Amino acid sequence: MKYLPIFLNICDKTGLVVGGGATATRKVELLLRANAKVTVVAPRLTEQLQNWVDEGRITYRADHFAPTDLQHCRLVIAATNDKAINEQVSMLAQAQGTPVNVVDQPQLCSFIMPSIIDRSPVQIAISTGGASPVLARLLRARLETLIPAAYGKLAEFVASFRLLVKQRLPFNERKSFWETVLQGPIAEMLLSGHTPAATKALENLIEKTASSPKKYGEVYLVGGGPGDPDLLTFRALRLMQQADVVLHDRLVSPGVLDLVRRDAELIFVGKQPTNHPVPQGKINQLLIRLAKEGKRVLRLKGGDPFLFGRGGEEIETLMDEGIPFQVVPGITAAVGTSAYAGIPLTHRDYAQSCTFVTGHLKDDSTDLNWDALAQPHQTVVIYMGLRSLPVISRELIRHGMPPDKPAALVQKATTSDHRVLVGTLETLPGIVEAADIKLSSIIIIGEVVKLHKKLAWFAPPVGNE
To answer: N or C: which end of the chain has fewer CB within 10 A?
Structure first.
């Protein structure tokens, strides 16, 4: 993130605009909407700027910029077509610590002006960091169609009840209360112009909620998918935005984690082979404790929570304690890996069945049903098998699988670090060792691996192939 998005209060503060053309006029109009005291310095003015001077809405000095113009300014905008003046304004303003924007010259700016959607008091700012102002305007146009003009009225309506809700409801219930209000019929009443009915309904809801407080919060057991945030389900994203606290695994990608509610508490409970800093029993108890505190708890897992994700163990404990929960499936790693690597798990010419197996058992062994896995006309997908790959290769060959059976290891599938290594059952362990592959990988064994070269479509950034 190159810039920190902030909203600056410049009400009754002096804002200086250097320039008197059409661009300067637009900037002055924006400052006036923010109730700033605007001073314009320029040899000449547009007709609109002159009207504002005549009306007493802005102060005007008819001259070229001088360093003394910066005195007592809270914010400066340079909007001239003179490069030397723009550079001088930028240098002097930054030297004295005054925020400065030079139009269309981001290298001279200490802040940039975003595209704005104004539903006061609701405001949305959109920026590309100066990379493409046109793109920012297109995004703004799209969002304008999605946000009703009455949202400002809705925000003012909510503000009028905030103190009462704060007095009547405990802290841990307020967020969910307001989400119920803003996503339900009360908001629709207000947006459709039925303010008295919305007021009465909100008053009733406050009384009802205050008289019957929740006993527990809720746990959301959510599959975060194989890594690409675009592969999340709608329900997963919605619950990620509602959570008060998030318990997340090592396999949850940074892109997915970044979509969690910004003010949610994040607790890392990830595991690695032979290293479990937070044992499963402690995770189960933590879920219970947080839910009993009335919090909405997101248990965010990579892939799908019910496929080698210990989701069943966790909800068993929740059920025993009477804690309400939801389970949201995710695209499991095997399916995401298969799709992005161009290796179909079944194919009429090669495999009529597919077996998922973990290469890391509860007791740290790799004691699998080798006879079943070595059967022909199937695809074997191995989770958590990186450390056990030499053993897996040896045992499958020993139990009758041909040494030249095609095999692949896919690292961090669906992400920018996506990498596919292809070999045979016999050669793959050496290929993987030479490539210094770490964790987050899936192993696929079967004739379908032959299709990778033909069907691979996903191209990560150069340098990651």
So the answer is: N
